Structures are given as structure tokens and as C-alpha cells.
Amino acid sequence: MADVKLEIQMLHDRVMVRISPEDGERRSSGGIVIPATAQMAKRLAWGDVMGVGTNVRHVKVGDRVLFNPEEQFEVEVQGQTYLVMRERDVHATATERTDQGTGLYL
């Protein structure tokens, strides 16, 4: 049987996110390199939305979202790691289209 490619479609209120590569090693304001493995307080991460389910209302594909990566499910697709979460687990979105933002920009 030939390899059949199957498209992934997210269901219900699920969101598939690719973690941003810059969320690894960080630099302090003084220039000190902080490795990704350093123990810190719980840290939220930014990621790019790659897919959304049919019941997702506030997040769109292409948005950047803020979430807790430690509480999500991880899946690997074609060698790339993604996280799957419920829309309610997203803390914030960064998008060009805005109705009521914080006034802060990435």
C-alpha cells in the first residue's frame, strides 16, 4: 500500500501550537545567558497556532499565544514537536487584529 498523507484536523476546542524557537536559551537585561534548563518560577511560553478545532472562538491559525507548556500534551509530526491544548488554556494572544488589547506589543 502506498504512503497516504492524512491531513490533521483539530477537533472541538483544541488548539495545536508550535513553541517559538526563542523560548530556549534567554539573556538577562545585563547580558547574562540563562540556559533553557535553568530552574525558575513557572514560566509561560509563546507559540504559534498551527491549527484550531471547530469550536475555537478567539484564536486563529497564525496567532501567537501565551500558555503554560508544562500542562499541555506533546505530539511529534514529521520530526516537529507540537503541543495540543484546550482554548481555555491559552492565557493571551498576540495578533495584528485587535479590538481590546493591553497596549503592549511583541
UniProtKB/TrEMBL annotation:
It comes from the Bacteria. The keyword Electron transport does not apply. The keyword Metal-binding does not apply. InterPro entries: Chaperonin_GroES (IPR020818), Chaperonin_GroES_sf (IPR037124), GroES-like_sf (IPR011032). Keywords: Chaperone. Together with the chaperonin GroEL, plays an essential role in assisting protein folding. The GroEL-GroES system forms a nano-cage that allows encapsulation of the non-native substrate proteins and provides a physical environment optimized to promote and accelerate protein folding. GroES binds to the apical surface of the GroEL ring, thereby capping the opening of the GroEL channel. Heptamer of 7 subunits arranged in a ring. Belongs to the GroES chaperonin family. This is 10 kDa chaperonin.
